[in-house]
Amino acid sequence: VTNTVAHEALAADSVVRSAAAGDEVAFARLVAEHHASMARVAFVICGDREATRDAVQTAWAIAWRRIGSLRDPSRIRPWLVAIAANEARKLAGRARHGQVVDISDAVGRADAPDPATFLDNVDLELVLRRLQPDERRLLALRYEAGLDSSEIALQLGITASGVRSRLARIIERLRLDLRSQEGAAR
Amino acid sequence: MNARKTFEAQLADLIAGYADAAPIDVDPLATARFARAAASRRKVADWFTWVDRTLAVGLGIVLLMVTFIAGATVGGRGDAEPTPQASNSSPAPVPRFSGLPPAEAVPSSPMMGVLVASSFHIHPYFAVFAYEDGRLISSRDVPGLRWTTMGWREQHLSPEGVELLRAGAVALPDWDELDATSWLPSNGWDDAHLSAYVPARYAVCVFYDADNSPPPVAILDRLSVEARALLDNALRVYDTPGGGRPGPMRCHDLTLRDAQALDEILAETFATSLPAVGLAVDYRLDDRGNEFLTFLPLLPHGVWSPEGGG
């Protein structure tokens, strides 16, 4: 098992280095492996499918240019999702003033999906929209991408303790917000 | 605490469910081709949004470290290797060297310089800096070779040439004009001959992992007394973000002579890392690969990258 893991790590390392050398096929392998993670993170930040596509496409272009600066190939995933998160944050920052989320129609629709799931999603959508793009980026990197505070700190250029304290504040606000909605719904 | 953990778990589930609506369909090869084409099209202005700056500096560092190439008149202490032939016809191949300039190399003078004009482009890569004292220092990539540059070269402008640039009467050359002299009137040149730029100063930087490494002072304690004495002799010491590397860094600006002496000492004790990409000097200080000591050639205005640093 150890040999297999080591072999896979070496293979992944080789793909990253080939991509950095301009190998389109190697880069395509990275796209195949990491695109979904990047899109999911970007979507949590943007909340919009078209904006997510734009953010991730831009992120890949940036990744192509900068992959040679990635010192540790084993960090390719956090590096890529952080680029996508940054691009999504930019787009969300531009769009947020014009965006209004209205849940009243959807809640009352007869053809709405399973009420429990639907309500959860609507609540989260509403609550996420109330956060700043920077805050959604932190949430996405932590809870969707699963990065720990040290990795987020590395990718965003801030301290790990700063990441932890910001996340703690965001979570507390979310907890209160979601609970208050839950209470209002009952 | 337990309640918070439970809430965090619920939150993670909610976010994961929400993210299921993300558009994840993709054609990998088409995306790779798009990325490559987009990278070629992007202009400098698009590169340097504030979010990009840190990584761009990192790329600049890579470009510099990958490509410290002495000109034909300067031999490196390390191995010389011929530059691979470019796919285009010009310019002529130049010898490549790794390591710091040899002991007999004469550093560029004066040690500091006041910038009069500069120009920089990522792809194709070129950077050119004009100084009040007449130095014109430039680098560019070898046509067809990604991230392989000609190294820093030095030419000399006449006072008239400096004034033409300062007044904006003449613009610095573009990538394809950089090796020509015709972009400037003949009286603008004092010496148009391209020779190797020998940095008078190096930034010797400790890269480390902010969360998992000991503080820089403790990392430097691994060096010998002689090595630390050279660092203590730094012209200045400063902290700066990692610039594309995994961690912040503490830098010491050393004169070329002190940098060469330090390099000699370190070479006996530590392994250089990533020699395959041709870093000038990059010593690994720990087993995990989190901590490095890197020598970055400084330009006369005190930066190691066209986009800053230092």
SSE inventory with pairings:
The complex is a heterodimer of chains A (186) and B (310).
Chain A: H1 2-20, H2 24-46, H3 49-66, H4 76-95, H5 104-108, H6 115-130, H7 133-144, H8 149-156, H9 160-185
Chain B: H1 2-19, H2 28-41, H3 44-47, H4 50-66, E1 80-82, E2 95-97, E3 115-121, E4 126-131, E5 135-140, E6 153-157, H5 159-166, E7 189-196, E8 201-207, H6 216-220, H7 225-232, E9 236-240, E10 249-255, H8 256-267, E11 282-284, E12 292-297
Antiparallel strand pairs in B: 1-2, 3-4, 4-5, 5-6, 6-7, 8-10, 8-12, 9-10, 11-12
Helix pairs in contact in B: 7-8
Short summary:
The complex is a heterodimer of chains A (about 190) and B (about 300). By secondary structure, chain A is an all-alpha fold.
Report on the architecture of this protein.
The complex is a heterodimer of chains A (186) and B (310). In chain A, 79% of the residues lie in helices and 0% in strands. By secondary structure, chain A is mainly α. In chain A, α2 (24-46) packs across α7 (133-144). The model of chain A is unreliable at 96-122 (pLDDT under 50). Chain B is an alpha+beta fold. Chain B has a five-stranded antiparallel beta sheet with strand order 3-4-5-6-7. In chain B, strands 9-10-8-12-11 form a five-stranded antiparallel beta sheet, sandwiched between helices. Chain B has a two-stranded antiparallel sheet with strand order 1-2. In chain B, a hairpin with a 3-residue loop joins β4 and β5. The longest helix of chain B has 18 residues, at 2-19. The chains are: A mainly alpha (186), B alpha+beta (310). The interface between A and B is large, with 57 and 54 residues.
